[in-house]
Each structure stands twice: as structure tokens, then as C-alpha cells.
Amino acid sequence: MPRARSVTARLARREIHVPDREWSLESRTRTSPVGVRVDAVPEQLTMLRALAETVTLMADFALDEVTDIRVALDEIATCLLPAAVPGSSIECEFDFDGDRMTVRVIGLATRLGMIDEDSFGWHVLRTITDTLVVHETDTDGSGLGHPVVIEFTRRRGDGDAG
């Protein structure tokens, strides 16, 4: 049985007809936000890491930038998990605008002030992100917990962001 030729080889030999139009291999400069909601349990960290890596790779970030975003998300989720209301979830949203990835992580905490912004992990977060903001709300209206929103951005091509 003859081996199938790759599409690239077939295009080069003009075995596949491509209509005359401009083709670009560049990534789109604007994408739709991508998000996921997972149970607030440590077993879901793998899902969040995988999503962070996939989204940033699809947005054509360099490997060191992909790692920075994945590590930042991992640190944030790890901070949220111990104080999460039992049975609650963590929501994570990625938004890319062409040169900057914005990541928003939302959880429901049992208490206010659960984020230690003086910790070593938080120092690392400030170093590998361009912006880092924490919003804590006194209550979610139901009395079940305190909504916490942590948002960071990472620009493409910054090398070391901090």
C-alpha cells in the first residue's frame, strides 16, 4: 500500500488546488474568552493547569510565558482551595486581546482575608505577572461564603514580567 503524502508535500507538488486568496499563519489578534468551572478540590488542579497551558499555547505565547501563566494560576488556585466553602467551585476565565492574557479566578471562601499577600508564593506571583489584583466581598448574599476574585495579566514578549 503506498504511503500517504503529507498535505504540505501535496500542496508543494500542486496536487491539491487552493483557490487564490491570501492565507496567513499568524494567530488571530482577538479571541473569545475561554472558561471552566471545576469543583474546589485539589484533584482539579490538573485540569486548571492543562487549560492554562492549552489556551496560552493556542494564543502563541512563548514557552516561558506559558509556564508563567500556568504557575500563576496554580498558585492562585492553591491559595483558594484550603479556604473554599465545601461543595463550592472555582471558576477560571482566560481572555486574550492580541498581546495580553487576562486570567480571572473566582472562588467562594469560608472567611475573608484568606490570601496572604506577604507570602513567598505571592511574591512569585507579583514577579511573573504584569498586574495582580484581589477582590474580596463580605458576602455573596446567601450567607454561604465570601466571593474572592483574583485577576492577573501577562503580556506577550516581556521575558521576565516583574
Describe the structure.
This protein is α+β, with helices and mostly antiparallel strands and 162 residues long. It has one domain (26-155): Heat Shock Protein 90 (2-Layer Sandwich), CATH 3.30.565. Helices cover 29% and strands 25% of the residues. β2 and β3 (100-109) form a beta hairpin. α2 (45-58) packs antiparallel against α3 (63-80) and α3 packs antiparallel against α4. The termini are far apart.
Number of helices: 4
Assigned CATH superfamily: Histidine kinase-like ATPase, C-terminal domain
**What spatial form do the alpha-carbon principal axes imply?**
globular
Order of helices and strands: HEHHEEHEE
CATH class: Alpha Beta
Low-confidence stretches: 1-12, 15-29
Instruction: Specify the biggest β-sheet.
Output: 5 strands, antiparallel
Q: How many discrete structural domains? A: 1
**SS-derived structural category:** alpha+beta
Organism: Nocardia aurantia
Protein name: Anti-sigma factor
Key features of this structure:
4 helices, Heat Shock Protein 90, 162 residues, 5-stranded antiparallel β-sheet, 5 strands, alpha+beta
Put the structure in a nutshell.
The chain is of the alpha+beta class and about 160 residues long. The chain is about 30% helix and about 25% strand. Strands 1-2-3-5-4 form a 5-stranded antiparallel sheet, covered by helices on one side.
Break the fold down into its secondary structure elements and pairings:
Layout: H1 7-12, E1 34-39, H2 45-58, H3 63-80, E2 89-96, E3 100-109, H4 120-128, E4 131-136, E5 146-155
Antiparallel strand pairs: 1-2, 2-3, 3-5, 4-5
